Amino acid sequence: MKAIKKISTKSRKQYATLPWRTGPDGAPEILLITSRETRRWVIPKGWPIKNLTPPQAAAREAFEEAGVEGTVGATPLGSYRYDKQLSRSKTQPVIVQIFALRVETEHAKWPEMAEREKRWMPVTEAAQLVDEPELKALIGALDGSLKPVEAT
Q1: According to the 3-state scheme, what is the secondary structure of the chain?
Q2: What is this structure's pTM?
Q3: What is the pLDDT of residues 52-64, one digit of tens each?
Q4: Among 3.40.50.1820, 3.40.50.300, 3.90.79.10, 3.30.200.20, what is the CATH number of 5-140?
Q5: What digits encode the pLDDT tens for the residues 84-142?
Q6: Which residue ranges make up each domain of the chain?
Q7: Pairwise CA distance, residues 126 & 118, whole Å
Q8: What are the two backbone dihedrals, phi and then psi, of residue 12, each rounded to the nearest 5 degrees?
Q9: Cβ contacts of 81-84, under 8 Å, gap ≥ 24
Q10: Listed residue (60, 150, 143, 67) closest to 109, CA to CA
Q11: Strands 45-46 and 41-42
């Protein structure tokens, strides 16, 4: 069995949104999507985009990966770390900054709709379904505390 090696010890940055809305019962709901390759439940995220601020880049990823748009927070909710699998034998350490995205529009069509599943769920269920421990803790701590955010 081949050992997985990191191509770099220096972490790269990604930006993500935590898409949310108020559910029918008045409680916040989180939108999770599946990753394209492993089909794990994740939040929309991506690499920095030239000429976009981190919250704007995160919002663009939310549209491309989940077909949602809305008001994105200017200040990160937090961050988490993970090792991005680049190939069978190479990984890249990544730090992901997370911005709240209050979803106002959910499009019927979006760029990656054929590549992913998406599902709205209660905060506690979302926290259970994600794999990354820091992301799990961050989502779990939000139960009932999500409120409209200031736009960037």
Answers
A1: CCCCEECCCCCEEEEEEEEEEECCCCCEEEEEEECCCCCCEECCEECCCCCCCHHHHHHHHHHHHHCEEEEEECCCCEEEEEEEECCCCEEEEEEEEEEEEEEEEECCCCCCCCCCCEEEEEHHHHHHHCCCHHHHHHHHCCCCCCCCCCEC
A2: 0.86
A3: 999 999 999 999 9
A4: 3.90.79.10
A5: 887 878 888 999 999 999 999 999 999 999 999 999 999 999 999 999 999 999 998 88
A6: 5-140
A7: 12
A8: -100, 165
A9: 81/11, 81/132, 81/134, 82/132, 83/6, 84/12
A10: 67
A11: unpaired
Q: Which residue carries 């439940």 as its tokens?
A: 41
Q: Supply 4's token pair.
A: 């997985």
